[in-house]
Design a protein that fits this description.
Shape of chain B: globular
Number of strands of chain A: 11
Shape of chain A: globular
Helix content of chain B: under 10%
Number of strands of chain B: 11
Radius of gyration of chain B: 13 Å
Oligomer: heterodimer
Low-confidence stretches of chain B: none
Number of helices of chain A: 0
Structural class of chain B: mainly beta
Mean pLDDT of chain A: 95
Largest sheet of chain A: 7 strands, mixed
Low-confidence stretches of chain A: none
Mean pLDDT of chain B: 93
Structural class of chain A: mainly beta
Number of helices of chain B: 0
Order of helices and strands of chain B: EEEEEEEEEEE
């Protein structure tokens, strides 16, 4: 049972590059979330989804996009990477608003 | 702007004592309250959730919720060095049961 799988684990981007952070869960959870965590800080909600085809903005959505075409996958897209997007990104899923987190993706934008 | 406030710490507690962690929230209509533990360099893991006023106990952990005063707390009894971590409080926004906002966390250190 893999739980919540995030790929890649680490990535370095140049300013202006684009990338997609992948998140997949095998628990048939309806709820999925993306958070970012800056050093020494709490989690900031970027986007969330309560089911396939439904997404909503969180606290800090600017510079990011998401899609939810299946129950299992919830990719996060960065279109034009900026240094301010250097962070650790966590994906979470849950049968309700109780969340189970993936291991995270550490992203540096230089 | 909805807010979830926690004292950043560090909170230092001797081994075997009770650690008390507090969290206040701004949205009076919030219904769901969570405590997560995060070890350094790791992802958050759920410790407890509470939806009703009062206390909820699970092993050495007790969550306390007071909606009138808009605070939620976590008590850890018989604190162990392995409890040393950052504890994150999370609350749903009034407008959405599914929109979960986190506080900045309290760093707890258990000294032997």
């Amino acid at each position: 049972n893999a739980g919540v799988t995030q790929t890649p684990k680490f990535r370095i981007l140049k300013i202006g590059q684009s990338m997609t952070l992948q998140c997949a869960q095998d628990m048939n959870h309806n709820y999925m979330y993306w958070y970012r965590q800056d050093p020494g800080m709490g989690l900031k909600l970027i986007y969330y989804s309560v089911g396939a085809g439904i997404t909503d903005k969180g606290e800090v959505p600017n510079g990011y996009n998401v899609s939810r075409s299946t129950t299992e996958d919830f990719p996060l897209r960065l279109e034009l990477a900026a240094p301010s997007q250097t962070s650790v990104y966590f994906c979470a899923s849950g049968p309700s608003n109780i969340q189970y987190f993936g291991a995270g993706t550490r992203l540096s934008v230089l | 702007q909805k807010e979830v406030e926690q004292n950043s710490g560090p909170l230092s507690v001797p081994e075997g004592a009770i650690a008390s962690l507090n969290c206040t929230y701004s949205d009076r209509g919030s219904q769901s309250f969570f405590w997560y533990r995060q070890y350094s360099g790791k992802s958050p893991e759920l410790i407890m959730f509470i939806y009703s006023n009062g206390d909820k106990e699970d092993g050495r952990f007790t969550a306390q919720l007071n909606k009138a005063s808009q605070y939620v707390s976590l008590l850890i009894r018989d604190s162990q060095p392995s409890d040393s971590a950052t504890y994150l409080c999370a609350v749903n926004e009034d407008s959405s049961a599914s929109k979960i906002i986190f506080g900045s966390g309290t760093r707890l250190s258990i000294r032997p």
